[in-house]
Amino acid sequence: MIETISPSLTLVENSSPKLISSETHQGNSVSPRSAITKMVVVALLLRILIILCFHTYELQTRVVTDQPSGTHFAFGFETGSIAGSIARGEGFSSPFGVSTGATAWIAPVYPLMCAAIFKVFGIYTTASAIVILSLNSIFAALTCIPIYWIGKYVFNPRVATLSGWMWAVCVFFMRWPTTWIWEVSLSALLLSTLILLTFSAMTQEGRIGSIKLGGVWGLAAITNPSLLGVLPFSLCWLAVQRHRASRDWLKPILLTVAVTFAITTPWLVRNWIVMGKPLFIRDNFGFEFYLGNYHGSNGLGFMGKHPTKNNNQLQLYSQLGELGYVKHFQHEALNFVKHYPEEFSILTLKRIVSFWDGGEINYESYVYWRWKSWKMLVLAVPTAFGLLLAIGRNRNIRAGLLGLVVLLYPLPYYLAYPQERYRHAVEPEMLIVSCFLACALWDHISRGVTVNRLDESDQEFA
Amino acid sequence: MFGVWMIWFLLWMLAGAWLYFAIFQGMGRRSISSRRRITLIGGWTTFSAVAAEVTRQSLNGYSPSFRLCAAVIIAFMLIGAAAGFLAASFINLRWSVSQSDIVAGIVGAWLAGWIEITLSYNPMSYVLPIAVIGAVFGTVATRIAIKVRCVTFTSDSEQV
Prior knowledge:
The structure holds 2 protein chains of 2 kinds. By secondary structure, chain A is mainly alpha-helical.
């Protein structure tokens, strides 16, 4: 089936993004490669400018004296603390700023990156802060590439260009890479790359596509395991699409899963050996689940019960050890669910609403670059309308994958607790769908204006 | 308390179904168009949910007055009708709408307003804009669901 995506460009259905990339816009001298390069460069420069002009690195290097988690805990929180331990030669340990032994509290990739930077530029130094925030900015700038190709593949070049430029220049998307030492920007880059590779794997024959997809899934798993929530659904979507196109679907899916597992295995083995029992990538979900789920909770994760803020909790953590501590609170949380199922259901519904309408922002302590909750709606509302139009009205199957990812990625946060930064991983996809809506509305209005003008000229002629 | 909510919800739903059959049998009409059926069922489901929630709140000790509930429901109805009318006019690019657009707008405003009041941590000032958004979403979703013929709104920006 031949489908038209613009008057000047046609493509065969299910053609891969790679095939599209060889196309150029007729009547438009700017090639996609050149446009994307400009987006990436502008995105990076603007983010670096924010870091240097607003001295956001000083937020990391400030000395904290009123918390039990040490004076440098503001530098990347658990990530920074573990990275510092690695750089000092103490291994992957001590997530709360004081020496507490081996840990699997968070996934390994980002702390290892930070540790490498600490080795070169010094532990908790201003230079390290600038380099890490710049690295975040590089991840954020590179996200323009999958955004452009997803926009083009799912919708058209106009949506792709608009989405890419919006990501590059909108200050809204610059907060996390420039102020927060965490894997937020890397997660956004990985998830959008995964979506692009899934589209690519729809049509690819041979093993390369599956190996690439599995490789990036593996990297995503050991960077941010929350992304794995999307894995089964996206692979099912891929299997259905390949089956519908009468292509082999079982072997590629199995290969993808095998490669993903192979990449995560060394970390799982390390956890087994070092922590003394088989664990998945990180072990703290039980505790995070408890922070959002206890009798009388508001469901938004009370940080007053966290070892980084509460000395008694830190002492309990040291006393029980990480596994004992998490097991204790997981037991408490499951008891709560068992005894108060209605309260748990209502808290879960409140968390779902808060994730999308930003209500939890009203309960967050003021740190810096404070948002009002309506800013979360600015992207959430057009995303909802864009998905409705693309999937409901136009039966766009590819937009279906974007919808799946946007709706299902937050599942762990619906159960534990939401925070505004958690949404950043799916903001590229939300932006693409929002830009599609903007283009559709523009077409609708301009078409209406044209029709009205024709009507007026007809009347004049009559 | 969830059980109480569900009991009230089912009671309201059954009452709605009974009324539905009683009225239409009384009118001597055996059939009703699918579009009207969808909007009626949607409207009554939302109303039942709101009624059940008000009952639950009352049993919890917080009992909003009847006047307050009525005022809020009527206000949302007016907001939803206006937003549904404007959304449909925008889609049609002229001042012409169908009955289902208005009803969908009302249902959308009720549902979104109810969710924002009962489940959100945002201030009450957010309820009005959210209700308007819900009304517009309800109108667009209903048009898509029941395939009302739109003049346009299939954009060139869509490839499929």
